[in-house]
Amino acid sequence: MSDKVIYVMYDDDHILKDGAKKLVSNGVKISEVFSPFPIHGIDPIIGIKNTRLGIMAFLYGLTGLTLATLGMRYMMIVDWPMNIGGKPNFTYLDNILAFIPITFEFTVLCAAHGMAITYLLLNKTLPGMPAQNPDPRTTDDKFVMEIRLSENSSMTEESIDALLSDTGYFELDKKEVK
Amino acid sequence: MEFQITKKAKNVTFGLIAVGLLLTVVGIATGMGDHHFKTRLLTNGLINGFFYFALGLGALFFLALQYATETGWYASIKRVIEAVAGFIPYGMGIFGIVLLTITFMDGAHIYTWMDSEIVAHDEIIQGKSAYLNKTFFWIRTVVYFITYFYFLNGFRKRSLEEDRIGGTELHFKNYRQGALFLVFFAVFSSTSSWDWLMSIDVHWFSTLYGWYTFAGMWCSTMVVLVITTLYLKKLGYLEKVNDSHIHDLGKWTFGTSFLWSYLWFSQFMLIWYANIGEEVTYYQMRIDNYKIMYFAMFVINFAFPMLLLMSRDAKRHAGILTFVGLIILVGHWIDVYIMVSGGTMGAQAKIGFMEVGMALMLLGVFIYVVLRNLTKSPLTPVNHPFLDESIHHDI
Questions:
Q1: Does A86 touch chain B if contact means CB atoms closer than 8 Å?
Q2: Residue B98 lies in a domain
Q3: How far apart are CA B248 and CA B72, in angstroms?
Q4: Does residue A110 contact residue A60 with C-beta atoms inside 8 Å?
């Protein structure tokens, strides 16, 4: 199925935000915005849901906590009971204080790494992957709004163009994609 | 919009003061004959005098921190911070009277190093007497009080002046004074907690104690700030304050709870691990006499904010924030209670009419003073250079 993508480039984030507001209020679906920095307040305008990365971070942290506890219990108590500084590790609970710093560190390690890797995977930006943004200038000082005709079946290309014409864009580019 | 104290708020605060006073009088009347009566009364004075003074001091610190870092978001809640910090003169008055009474009673079994008879037979205190003696103690206390009052006064004066004339000159003056305050506070927060609280357990010392006290104080202050802001918003004031400001205050509450828990644990674990006789006494005394209360306090102050305030939605929910805030505020009061009583009353300590009464009475005074401070100036600063940024705060 062929599709047409409209890339509208702006040179100011406020102009883009105003333009996006106008388009959305006229029923246009904006599929993506590319910008060199996070634009405050753009997510609710273009209808992006809150990230669930925080929930994942909690789960990764929980994994780390469990792994650290099980690991230390096996290494320090079950497999080879250790006696460090006159504190023999006969039970985990009696010496839990000594294990807390490592548990904490491992929880943070798992949460941070898990979160970072998930983020890179979701954005398809792992090292070596091809760039996702349509124009390298969006990593410098330009802002691009992406509109897909397939997502706006109720609108014609001309009506979108008409809406865009007075939003003060910097450049307009259209591409056929397969 | 100018803030007016509602009739309900007036009734509640005066009710708190009246009930507190009544309970205190009942407590005094029933406890009068007791052998430990004087120590118990002054212990109570010290706990509450310090706790409420520290709430104000935490707000002054927080304000100075915002000035020194040139923060933008806080501009629309600046008057709330100032109002809480404005309790400092009253707090100093109450706390000062308690300290003065203790001094005139030669320590009253609270500061045993003030009692020359005890010092004469105690080599450890003799070794510390160059620092811990009445004269030097009062020189330090007066220096702390004057410094805090000077900065509070300056911040408040410039804040009101900014409303009238605006411009950036006052802003940069605040910036410099804020940074200067932090320099003083970095030293004073530690030394004052040694003087006022750690010297109760005069044989014992901990290098983390200052930070630990400071973290507890900061966390309690953030709770007070978030609850005051929510209260004003509920009444329809502070219309410029949006969910993001509340979220930020919630994050501070969450973060400072962790700071406090981290320091509590660090102090506890190092002493537990080393297991040196003169260090563990502090905890042994507290665990022997307050075992359940001590650990319950830690769990409440740590686990409650961690589990309930972790999600983004919870930090924006007025009900959850108020609920968690009130619980950890009580938790931090109990923390101070155990810090002080553990050294002064030991096994004789109990929570009775006097303890509850005095805490409620001063709570009433504290709320009333803060509300009255709020009426004295417009709730939103007019010419703060970052006001616009604060109004558009969005996270």
A1: yes
A2: yes
A3: 12
A4: yes
- Which amino acid does the sequence have at B145? F
Neighboring chain B residues of A97 at a CB cutoff of 8 Å: 265, 268-269, 272-273
Chain A environment of B394 (Cβ under 8 Å):
40-41
Domain hosting residue B29, numbered range: 7-390
Separation CA A8–CA A10 (nearest Å): 7
In chain B, how many domains are there? 1
Write down the ipTM of this complex.
0.79
Residues facing A146 on adjacent strands: A7, A32
Residue A90: both structure tokens together: 């006969």
CA dist A26 and B212 (Å) reads 56
Residue A71 to residue B286: CA distance in whole angstroms = 33
What is the spatial distance between Cα B232 and Cα B337, in angstroms, rounded to a whole number? 30
Can you tell me the distance from the alpha carbon of B316 to that of A106, in angstroms, rounded to the nearest whole number?
29
Orientation of helix B353-375 relative to helix B37-68, angle to 10°: 30
Is B65 among the domain residues?
Answer: yes
Among chain B, residues having any CB pair with chain A shorter than 8 Å are: 265, 268-269, 272-273, 275, 310-312, 392, 394-395
Q: What is the pLDDT of residues B174-208, one digit of tens each?
A: 999 999 999 999 999 999 999 999 999 999 999 99
Q: Is B67 helix (H, G, I), strand (E, B) or coil?
A: helix
Structure tokens at B291: 């075992």
Write the pLDDT tens digit of every residue in A71-98. Answer: 999 998 889 888 877 776 678 888 888 8
Q: Which residue has the higher pLDDT, A42 or B230?
A: B230
Write down the pTM of the prediction.
0.90
Within chain B, which residues score under 70 in pLDDT? 1
B177 within a domain of the structure (yes/no):
yes
Q: Is B2 within the bounds of a domain?
A: no
